[in-house]
Amino acid sequence: MRVFVLTLVIAAAAAWPLRAADRVALVIGVADYATIPPLRNTVNDAAALARTLRGIGFEVSTMLDPGAADLRAALDDFGFAAETADLALIYFAGHGVEVQGQNFLIPADAAVRSNRDVQGQAVSLDDLLHAVDRARRMRIVILDSCRDNPFGDLIDTSAPLGGGRAGLAPPSPERGTLVAFAARDGQVALDGEGENSPFALALIDRLAQPGLEISLMFRQVRDRVLEATANRQEPHTYGALSGEPFYLAGPGEADERVRDEDRRIAWSSLRPEQELQLAALAAEGDTRSILGLAYMRLNPAEDRFDPAEAVQLLTRAAEAGSPEAQFELAKLYEAGLGVAQDEARALALYRQAAEQEFADALNDLAFMHFQGGLGLPRDAKRALGYFERAAAQRHPQAMFNYAALIDDGLVEGKGPAEAAGYLYGALRSGSADVLEILTERPTMFKPETRRALQALLREHAFYGGAIDGEFGPGTQRGLRAAYGLAD
Fold it and tell me: What is the pTM (predicted TM-score) of this model?
């Protein structure tokens, strides 16, 4: 049975041509509605935000007053482009309504007379989330659409979960995705007195601030809007980002440590005043902030290195339900760092994280069952199940290993087409290791799997050559294109 331990080989990508855009945004503003009163500032807000995003390095597509068909087509195109981006962001300014617990964004040509019209003519928040879903590191959807219902009693918001409230319903995005509302669910956002709304003004100002970590950025946007509106409007964010620090406008200093793959090092680069703000968020129970503080205490190069305190912080976040904290705490118990070594406790924590489908925990448990780690007996069948679950979360190492196991004929009911699908997914997720292996050592996979991968590359317009299993220059160009490299 083949299982390969892949590591992040950043150097492998260094020799390749330039990557495609690593930050992409779709900015939508709707003001001129066909059948309902127009909005005053939404197009201004969208145009100003698009300029700001371009100024900090985003590749931006802008849509002003789009109809439903154009909006849906743009979301499809954006979703494909987002697959090879580190960050995908969608901003929508316009009318939004809650119908039966689901949030819908209204295009310019909507002619609504019933709930069914909303569901058929509008795009849902789920549609926007689907479009950003496969970005590699971070996914953000910002809705500046928390306004009064423009359709009056034409639509019924009183059904279960609807509640008949103003504004939008609280969303439940998947892990790694942030949804920001201009006003907390159930509240109405204000247009303001000038050419831009209070939320757009605060967002534009804070987005352009270098060296501002994303959690702190959205908290500062919230504080500014509360101040500007005399506490009448409170922006709110939903979702759980990973514990990786992220700076939308860049680090702001000549310090590459903030981009380090090692989160202990990256979080240690946070400026002192922002660390204080992070600690304040942590005191309020924000698990991502607690994680950031814990990573700082795990950096042995820093004076604040304190594994025992990191254990305390991670325990708080783990008990609050953070799967990343459970995973990181498991590693400390396994190694005996900051706490007495306890393999049984480590295994229990790995399993807790895996129960929430945390990909790293699933992948590590797969290896433990495959190799017999942490006192577990070898169990290939259980290992396959964990690899499959991790691969479903687009974990690059798991996708590659599951493809290899399928290629070896060890996964019942799956063959070359499925193996190629997982390899293609690993490429699209940004695995430099998989790109290097398929370029340099493609014959480690059977001809049938290689042909199936060529067929996938052709299906997505990355390759136009023969389906022969030979990975010559044409196939290699297709592999690089699927990964997101431009020749």
Answer: 0.89
